[in-house]
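Thread: "does anyone have the structure for this chain?"

Original post by V.I.:
We have the sequence but no experimental structure in hand. Need at least a predicted one for the grant figures.
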Amino acid sequence: MQEFQTNKANLTQARLQETPVHTLGDGEVRVKVDRFAFTANNITYAVMGDQLRYWQFFPPNGDEPEKWGIIPVWGFGDVIESNSDALPVGERLFGYFPPANELIVTPKRVTQSSLLDGSAHRAELPPGYNLYQRVNHERGYDRAHDDQRMLLFVLHLTSFCLHDLLNSNDWFGAEQVVIISASSKTSIGLAYGLTDDKDAPHIIGLTSNRHIDFVKSIDAYDSVLSYDTLEQIDATKPTVIVDMSANTDVLSRLHRHLGDNMRYTSNVGLTHWDEPRHAEGIIQERSQQFFAPSHVQQRMKEWGPEEFNKRSMQYIMNSTAKTSAWLKIQELDGVNGLLEVYKDICEGKIAADEGLVVVMGD
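Reply from O.Q.:
Generated one for you, tokens below.
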């Protein structure tokens, strides 16, 4: 039994830690982790681990627990032992897992379709991350689509929320939307949603030279430019920016180029997580950090959970279908396989059209 741990002070360093066998207490359930996705989004969880409490979901085993942390992942697991009458052996769950062989949960608020993990250390954490879907009870559930769901569902949920933010604010008065780090799967999910929206402004994707051919090939953006040529963007047009990269050099150049026509920047991702966070020229008063779970909670209050799920799932199904046409899934053999490529993930060396899925053995 092993778990994948990351050095919180040096995110490029990771280790595999042996885990002790946990004897189930009353109401507890043992879930065998079957498979999970690992993307640049997981590195964002690590970067924001202290600030947004991602390190608190799964306390690490082994020595120096204050030094090491467990990055949460989205995946599937199967109940193999249960002391809960509400959740029998054989249930299959989709949700937040540690990159490890198993997870112990204490089910609460169990319905036909979902449950919350009521473990004490997760009680104060965002409920959306403590929710597990009982997928065997979903109409038309098919394991063949598990990989796409793990890789894209959460990313494209963020895409949906960003589209909703822009649309509900009348695009902040912009005539063009610039998406930085256009090759990221969240960026592409947003671009597909904007493309399908007849009221959306012109969509410009900014990306690195090595990704430009790929970004042009997926037919998600109206135009695509490299970071080197961002000054070709028409600075006479009011512009909204969605920044998935946290590349402060690119962002400050873009802000300076657009000047007063930079109407709003939504800071979302951290593809360039090791960059300094502040730079001269960035218009801070018209920039705001975006946190998808907060947007989800707000919309659920306003629309109701059923309406939110209806709108978001329609969006996600459309964007996922388009993405699946070019997405190449690469399977890794357990946490050992993840350890082998982890540094490449941190350094952004995974091809933009690839999705990594870790398959856990028995």
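V.I.: this helps a lot. The longest helix spans residues 146-168.
O.Q.: and The mean pLDDT is 91.
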